[in-house]
Amino acid sequence: MEKIRLGLIGLGYIGKIHLRHCQRLANAKLMAASDLSKKALKIANDAGVKKTYTNYEQLLRDSDVDTVIIALPTHLHTQCAKQAAEAKKRIFLEKPIARNIKEAKEIILAARKNNVKLMMGYPLRFNPAFCKLKERIDDGTLGEIEIANATYISTGPFMHRAEAHTPLPVPEWWFNKELTGGGTLIDLGSHVINLLRWYFGEIINVKSHLGYRFNLDFEDSATCIAKFEHGTLGVINVGWFSQGYHLKIGLHGSVRSFSANHSPSNPITTVIQTLTKGYSKFHEGHFIELQHFVNCLIKDRSPSPSGEDGLGDLQVIEQAYRNQIRIDQP
Amino acid sequence: MRNLQTVDGIFLSLVSFAQIKNSNITETIDDSLDLINHEFPENIQNVVIKPNLCYYWDYTTGQTTDPNFVAALIDLLRTKISPNLEISIVESDASAMRCRYAFKMLSYEKLANSYNVNLVNLSEDQYETLCTTAGTYSFKIMVPKTIQEADLRINVPKIKYTMEPIKLTCALKNIFGCNPYPQKFKYHSKLGEAIVAINKAMNFNLHIIDGVIVSGIQPRRLGLVMASTDPVAIDKAAAEIAGLNPKTIKYLQLAKKEGLGNTTFIPKGEPLEYFKSKYPKKNLQAKLMSKAYSIAVQTGLSKKLGLE
To answer: Which one, of A33, A30, A84, lies nearest residue A61 by Cα?
Structure first.
């Protein structure tokens, strides 16, 4: 059977999670990794990656690599993904697809033109608890879903990162709206918007209220009300303002209500899991999505979520930015 | 000048404990200073205030000084000393924190604009190098010009546990944050000594603890204001409130030995025991986690597990 030969571009927070999961993938081998940081590359070497590059263009030229995982800051997605497509590498691209719709379309076009498969990284779509919700929607046990509540509150880039006990430096690009494309709505909102679109189809209208607790020029919290094509009303709350982590989807249907959440294990369990298995269960969705991607490549199927799904999420987010409501004045 | 009182012919430092009533922080700070018989010297023109800004955690976490507390202090200083007082709020960059973002995100930029005070990133300030010792170590300390030229230096720390072996972050440790050198972890193998050396070089006059919200094992509203001119005495009192044995905090003993203050003090105001009973102290699980984390750091296991 074909073995997918992976190259990992970017060894930041999410890149290191992919690094761990790549070791477990069936029918795939991580051949190379690239990052600007030599310290990060040393971690990859220690994890058994033989070839490391400080420039991703070198990795794209490596004929031992046929597929890339792009885990770079958002502002680098377009350039890197286009170059990867031109180098005929299959692409797994972290969310959000890009900073804006124009860039997203360029990525999709480059993948199409070069006939390479493109999958977006949305691990909630592979999280067992949220997959269960999808089954319950589809098999009708909840009836027609009238209201969907999606809440994703986390530390964001400026507080603790989920796994860290000591504060980590925040990369400069996180403070620059030009580079991120937006705030928490594009960071966390894209996850839950993608999930709800998977559940309920397209969003026909969305309005938002944005919060600025940290006085930055992009939002650190957002509440959106979205109307889906088949009538479901979605209420989306996202925020970076908490030291805690809370991710919950609640569905209220004409037959019954049901909810699912995703929470980190306590630190002791996390340490035991990491020591015994080399990874924590908290990021299991990331592993399943990568395995799905590999399986699709081997069977020559179209992976999902696609680049178009990522574009659709961005279109909803741009509409939410345009349709802001003010409630802090009478 | 320290505010002292004699007991049996021995000079002891005063430490006050005041409870915020009717949400009026300015009056409570004023009360806490009255309790230690503090009077501001004459001819003060410029004042430095050093809050504790730690990463981008806001004051509700108990990890950083509340800008409203600093605002209340500014109101008091302008009433007691002069409305035209030149005030600078100072902090320096750290390994994981940039002042320009912390000032903005933690609402100090807003405070500076509405109170017409300066925000100074000490890492960008001019400085003079001063040689000093602490214990058996010698240090070259960079003393920022803003601190050196201030007529009055006020320290506004928090009471916090720390994962590091020093156990307590309060008055003395907060002054360590005046060190303009951003890569502060380079001092961590001799952190206690470095804290003492920097305190010797910077010489803050007054220490007022913002204990409105304390962090402990979790944040809790304690409504406490403490004041002293003695950083060692106030740290010892803070350690007791946090349920730590001050004798196990080595840098406190070293600070006393180096002449920074007394480890015995006279408490004034509300009973220390009341605040100690309310402080969210570490339970057994938290103590074990701290111990395990220290071991993981020492053995390099924490890096392998992605905990650092």
So the answer is: A84
